[in-house]
Amino acid sequence: MHSVYNVLIWLALPLIVLYHTYRSASRGRPAAFLPRFGFLPPGQLAVLAGRRPIWVHAVSVGETIAVKPLLSALKRRYPDRPLVLSNMTETGRSIALSLRDVDLAIYFPFDYPFAVRRLLTTLDPCLVVIVETELWPNFLRRARTAGIPAVIVNGRISDRSLRHYLKLGSFFRSVLGDLAACCMQSDEDARRMISMGAPPSRVHVTRNLKFDISTPLHSAAELATMRSRFRIPGDLFIFTAGSTHPGEEEAVLATYAALLATGLPVLLVLVPRHPERAQAVGELVTRGGRDVVLRSDLGAHGADLVPGSVLLVDTVGELMAIYAVSDLVFVGGSLVPLGGHNLLEPASLGKATLFGPHMNNFREIAAMALQYGAARQVTDASSLADASVELLRDEGQRAVMGGNGRRLLSEQGGATELNMAVIDRILQGD
Fewest CB atoms less than 10 Å from the CB: which of 80, 99, 136, 146? Predict the structure, then answer.
């Protein structure tokens, strides 16, 4: 099966090259093929100073944000070990480049034997930490044969992924055997990992790192400064729709219309999950008769934003700051069947939060947010508008939801130390 896998990925090489060429060109970014095939410029390696690093891999933005507490813990516990953080996506890497605990940010290599062999040899890490469940057969096999332990942290197995993995049971049993440890978010994730063939002695339940997100409450003066940065007057009610996807912006705009119909001063901040969609989303907004201002154009805009207009965020890395100045948040990817996004980001900032019915990828988080009263689930565009108008008019209820969100994170944290306990045993050879 491993040989078949390698034949298939070689056959797919032209498609992979074409896809990344198109994706990079459409976003105005270099394709970065050399690092994706395992070649790093020698100048980048100077930061390692001959020391064996800890290599952490987080596929995209969500995983990169989730692993921040663990990166800080690794830096404190192993200060002499440089931290390398790799990503698959350009947006993930843009976040990685901004993290102070990261010594070197790179792209993860395509899973070709020569590429993973070259990069593992070049970096020579003492440990590989993979965030969530990125199972790359050639990479994991090469790491094991080179004597480099690989650990999954914050692991989870969705319903859909489980079905795919079980269809190729013997193949993934071999792949999972290359892992030194699997640190899973829940008992159910651990059970699923074992059913896929992971050795039970290597599977641990270490909770969800996303509950360990560190977000201090901002003072009124700090919030005023942040609002000023986004050209938002202090008297506007801010409704933010974060991480939206096609099919959701229409519902958000209808909700905005309902909020404005109350006669109160409201501003919509719209943050598409993928910034490259900003042009298409902007055209949708203007077709609806509303003025739209791009975040990247705020410096030249001159005037403060006004009720009825839309601030469309086409930048990366500012979502948490935008959540911080918001009064009400809708988390996207949940009105359409995409599995949802992380509710804990706005909840950690004490914000009343709404989400839709499709939360398969965040089932545990959604259930706990509802249990704590930190968020409310809506079923469709109409109920999103109704709930938003209700919460606009009820500041007390928003405050209770926000407080419950902070309490949720406070009481459910601790995953960082549980994961570190496993990592410590591996690095110390116990």
Answer: 80
Q: Is residue 213 part of a domain?
A: no
Residues 188 and 225 in one domain: no
The domain in which residue 352 lies consists of: 220-412
Q: How far apart are CA 232 and CA 226, in angstroms?
A: 9
418 and 405 both lie in a single domain: no
Write the CA distances from 391 to 222, 224, 375, integer angstroms: 24, 22, 11
Per-residue pLDDT reduced to its tens digit, 8-67? 999 999 999 999 898 888 777 788 899 999 999 888 999 999 999 999 999 998 899 999
Same domain, 224 and 127: no
**Among 309, 325, 319, residue whose Cα is nearest residue 342:** 319
Query: Two tokens at 94?
Result: 């843009």
Work out how many domains the chain is built from and give that number: 2
- Any idea what DSSP says for residue 204? E
Q: Which helix (H) or strand (E) holds 310?
A: strand 310-312
Which residue type sits at 134? E
The first and second tokens of residue 320, run together, are: 């948490």
Residue 265, judged by CB atoms within 10 A of its CB (0-12, 13-18, 19+), counts as middle
The catalytic residues are: 63
Q: Phi/psi of residue 155, each to 5°? A: -65, 140
What DSSP line would sit under 342-357, residue for residue? -THHHHHTT-EEEE-S
Does this model's pTM top 0.70? My answer is yes
Which token pair is 143? 């790491």
Q: pLDDT tens digit string along 63-100?
A: 999 999 999 999 999 999 999 999 998 889 989 999 99
Q: Residue 9 domain-assigned?
A: no
**Residue in 60, 62, 61, 82 with CA at minimum distance from that of residue 71:** 82
Distance, CA of 103 to CA of 83 (rounded, Å): 5
